[in-house]
Amino acid sequence: MAERGLTTLRHPAAAPLAVAAAGLAGAAYVYGTNPHEPGHLLPQCPFRYVTGLLCPACGGTRMVYDLMHGQFTAAWHDNRVLLLAAPFALVLLGRWFVEGLRGRRWRPELRPRTQALILGIAVTWTIVRNLY
Fold first, then answer.
1. Rounded to 5 degrees, what are φ and ψ at 88?
2. How does DSSP assign 67-98, residue by residue?
3. Selection from 20, 25, 30 nearest residue 61 by Cα
4. Number of other CB atoms surrounding residue 71 within 10 Å
5. Within a 13 Å sphere around the CA of 111, how many CA atoms are in the beta-carbon half?
6. What is the pTM of this model?
7. How distant is the alpha carbon of residue 100 from its chain centre?
8. Residues ≥6 apart with Cβ < 8 Å to 55
9. What gap in Å lies between CA 43 and CA 31, rounded to an integer?
10. Burial profile 23-41: b = 16 or more Cβ within 10 angstroms, e = fewer
């Protein structure tokens, strides 16, 4: 008798629901914790800790905090590229969630050209934000 792995037994909505639950828990913590102030349990960026440079996602937690508190200008200053990418990421997450609830497995298909574009934007953003 062949053993069935967890991936064959798990419902397609399990992973999206787990990500949504973790995201809501994280958002609830960030909402009540000001990442602009010291003395919180939010982790430091490992890339910045090692190199002293800002990574492409540095400022993302502060950006989310500012968005949840209606401070759009502050969110823009925290991380412009991540703020512009957030709607696209939310659409992909929403589609994954809806397809999972419908009982279908879904993964976004990013062509190599799209992957290269995303990587290029991330590298360019890292260089630009560390120069200015």
1. -65, -40
2. HHTT-HHHHHHH-HHHHHHHHHHHHHHHHHHH
3. 30
4. 15
5. 2
6. 0.84
7. 19
8. 45, 47, 48, 126
9. 15
10. eeeeeeebeeeebeeeeee
The pLDDT tens digits of the residues spanning 41-97 come to 998 899 999 999 999 999 999 999 999 999 999 999 999 999 999 999 999 999 999
How distant, in Å, are the alpha carbons of 36, 52, 102, 130 from that of 108?
34, 33, 16, 31
- The pair of three-digit structure tokens given for residue 108, joined into one six-digit string: 């976004």
Q: Give phi and psi for 103, each to the nearest 5.
A: 85, 15
Say which residue the tokens 């995201």 belong to: 23
Round to whole Å and give the CA distance between 45 and 53: 10
Q: List all residues 6 or more positions away from 52 whose beta carbon is below 8 Å from its beta carbon.
A: none
Q: Please, which residues have CB within 8 angstroms of residue 8's CB and are 6 or more apart in sequence?
A: none
Domain residues of the chain, as ranges? 11-131
